[in-house]
Amino acid sequence: MAAFVVVSSLLELVEQQLLQPKPCLVLDDTETIVSLREKLHFLQAFLEESNLKTEDPEAKEKLETEIQDVATKAEGQIGSKLRLVYLAANANGGDQCLVEEACQRLYQTMQQVVKDIKSVEIRILMLKPNLFSSSTNDFNEENVMVGVSSPSDLIPEDTPIVGFEREAEEIVGMLTKEWSMKREVIAICGIGGLGKTTLAKLVYEDPKIKYHFDIRAWTVVSKEHNVKEMLIHLLECILPVTSEISNKGDDELAKQLRNSLVGKRYLIVLDDVWWTIEAQDVIQLCFPNNFNGSRILITSRFREMCTYLSWEIIFDLKFLTIDESWEIIERKVCPSTEFKELGTSICFNCYGLPLAVVLCAGILATNKSLEIWKDVYETLRTSRISYDKSNLEVITSLCYNYLPNHLKACFLYFGVFPEDSSIPVEKLINLWVAEGFLMPERNKSLEEVAKSYLYDLINRNLVQIDKRSVDGKIKRCKIHDRVHEVCVREATKKNIMSLLNEKHALQVCRWISCQSSYWPITQAYYENHTSDEIHSILYFGRDFYPSRFRLVYPCLKLLRVLDLSLLKYSHGIPSGIVDLIHLRYLALSTIGSLYNFRFSKLQNLQTLVVSSWMGGCRLQLPSNILDLLQLRHLHLEKRYSQCFPSLIQENLQTLYWLKVARSDQNKNFKMVPQLKELGIYIEGELVHGCLEGLVHLHLLEKLKVEIGRVERFYLPTYFPPNLKQLTLCYTYLPWKEIYIVGKLPNLETLKLKDFAFCGSKWEQTEMGFKKLKVLLISRLDFTRWNASANHFPILEKLVLKYCWELKQVPIDFSNIETLKSIVLESCSSSLVNSAHEIKKMSIYEIQRREDQPAFLVDDLGTKIDLPNNEIFEEESVECSMEDSDERYC
User: Fold this and answer.
1) What are the residue ranges of helices labelled H in 14-95?
2) CA 20 to 30 Å from 540, out of 138, 179, 589, 652?
């Protein structure tokens, strides 16, 4: 697998940097480059097919090691020479003689690399009969580039929950019944993988729980706990966490959390508790005893812990029966009758451990041959495992072994994230793209390929869906901590990842995951390590405020990924970043001026995320960032002005936020024709028609518009034709203009927030919203809403938040055959009652089949005071269990 990562990364470098036209590259003879690409495709295809079982595993392993060594050496040599070309082109206006000399050295290096790979290629062809039954033609480029329909193309659904119904009902009853008005602690106890978190989430999301408690909050404690991070996660479920809050110390955060809970009936979930004294201190200091039936629910694999914290209120989870285990597999796989006997034998060898069963189901669902089922059974049977840790290690390793190499790389990459991380999907995908181990497919962007890989891992049950957005898309994902252990172990064993924390020292390898509160790469470190193997540094420490540090050491000259989003830098940007010319992904949280920073030198940058970690401290940025021709995703805070590129930008897909000011007469959106997502922030009175150019963005699917200091905003006459999601915020439009939005032919999700439209009455007269599936309305001042089912014929979800004046949902919405749920938060009782009336009359509820979910009216109640809307960004109706890093909106 490590060989596959290096070969794919080198191949991506050749295709994206050497074969793509660049002004500074003077390489007249492309024959060598094309030959190098073909040989790398051959190696990549060999490694992908050699993932299967062979008769001579020792020969295969020896070849893979040789391939890894050759590719690693080649990547370092080509990357270093290419770096010299870029530096020469950027030095003193670009001395042509120096550039040509650097290009000649690069060319000579590539010739030698082709010779080195050819010698390996000969040995592969000599040994190929012992390893493969396929013909040489299997290694051609055509097969590598063509994608085929597979399970990865299927949008993952949430895994059905089996075997927890009785326990969930019992715990919900215990939490909501007023058997004690004191603040009580209830514990769910069981070994890892038994389903403690799954059961707790089932309880947490129960409608009775949502209705009963004023506040619900969730945090993961985990083995490597961080008290400050836990407090921030709990606060995030209660109120918007600003940079001012996140910069407070533990004592101040604990006090603020306690004050937020005083007088409220709350449910706090502490998931995966490992330690004792600190847990008791947090409970005593942060969670007031309001004598109103507040509850604390903990999960832990240690019974002593549960006894210590909750006295006698402990739920010991039971193991699954064979029938329950088979039901999980049957729902996932839908096997024929001939598989049942073998399947129940597999279930028996999972010993009733839900995680083991789910992982086995993932293997069987994607490998439906009888031989694979037999192999899984024999592996479990002969391992002589029990229900303890070794059981899950064997099964998880089995899952890993059955992955194709391209998925193995993506799976192991989860190891760079801290245990129990809730990972933004968009961030993960952009990191995968930057790393360069994706296999391109025809008619798909790299982001689409990455998404299909993620879906494949989810469908295999190796990755979990952690959070969906209001329109049902997967927003965050995570992996079970027991699966995370395998990722870390395998990536470390293959020397492609180094985990740096208080227990582990820094080791030179491809990916560096820094989980301690200091910066690892220093002058002292460089003096002992001159290797150029480091390609990625991701910083996950907290409370580190460096004023100065350098990033110019030769050991980082091939760096592709630098994620410093959690490191709070004080002086604009660390020195030396400008010379990291191979950088693809850069995320910074800083204060100070970046105005003089030469972003133009980072010619390979694909993703740029820049934010200020101090509230009210606005950054100064250069206005030519969009001139970076390889840039695909740009995430800046609002109020940052950007000029459109001087040349047509063919790669840019995501732009948050584009500031439009008074001086902008007409934005030339033709310069960014490939945009798929766009956020526009408007300040100052605009000329009428300023945004008419949006119609030229034919690929745009997601648009957010937010208004700052503007007296009057004008909707564009025409929107992008393929727009699927639109968010309007503070636009103060009259309701008579809603018909413009209603005419959008492909609009599926509409979010109207913070006085997007004003007026007491929404009179829907036009026949619009023909494809709208999700409608969210938050903090609008209308009192009456006249609309019929014909206006929203395929609406599936209606969300109303802080609509204090609205008294009734249009009663005819009961005739919308597709309407499945109405969610209300901080709305009037009459509005809630009207929603329940619609549920009773709903055609969907009356006609639904037994296997369909019931119509849901989710009343979140009047929970808290209205948040400060300057920093309030609603993306999901539910309170989230997520990291504080929200760069990806």
Assistant:
1) 31-49, 57-90
2) 652
81/591 Cα distance (integer angstroms): 34
Q: Are 356 and 321 in contact (CB under 8 A)?
A: no
Nearest to 367 by CA among 53, 2, 43, 155: 53
Amino acid letter, residue 634: L
Dihedrals phi, psi of 503, to nearest 5 degrees: -100, -15
Q: 665-674 pLDDT, tens per residue?
A: 667 899 999 9
Q: Position of tokens 């540090």? A: 549
Reference 277, options 304, 256, 299; nearest CA is 304
Is residue 564 exposed (0-12), middle (13-18) or buried (19+ Cβ within 10 Å)? buried
The tokens describing 143, both together, are 């097969």
Q: 3-class SS at 483?
A: helix
> Who's near 793: CB < 8 A, 6+ residues apart?
769, 770, 816, 818
If you compute the radius of gyration of the chain from its CA atoms, what whole number of angstroms results?
Answer: 28
In contact, 607 and 430? CB cutoff 8 Å = yes
Given pLDDT bands bounded at 50, 70 and 90, which one contains residue 713?
confident
The dihedral formed by the CA atoms of 697, 699, 702 and 703, expressed in degrees to the nearest 10: 0
- Cα 730 to its chain centre, rounded Å, is 28
Q: Calculate the alpha carbon distances from 845 to 207, 772, 816, 855 in Å.
A: 17, 20, 11, 6
Neighbours of 244 (CB within 10 A): 11
SS3 call for 336: coil
Quote the CA–CA distance of 809 and 785 in Å, as a whole number.
7
Place of tokens 């922030």: 681
- Per-residue pLDDT band for 144 (boundaries 50, 70, 90) equals very low
Cβ burial 199-218 (10 Å sphere, 16+ → b, else e):
bbbbbbebeebbebbbbbbb
Euclidean distance between CA atoms 875 and 776, whole angstroms: 10
* Euclidean distance between CA atoms 199 and 395, whole angstroms: 22
DSSP letter for 93, please: G
CA distances from 766 to 50, 739, 791 (A): 61, 6, 8
Contacts of 712 (CB under 8 A, 6+ apart): 685
Q: Which positions ≥6 away from 548 have C-beta within 8 Å?
A: 571, 574, 575
Burial 764-773 (b: 16+ CB within 10 A, else e): beeebbbebb
Asked if 555 and 530 count as a contact pair (C-beta separation under 8 A), the reply is: yes
Q: Residues 854-889: pLDDT tens digits? A: 888 887 765 434 444 433 344 333 333 333 343 343
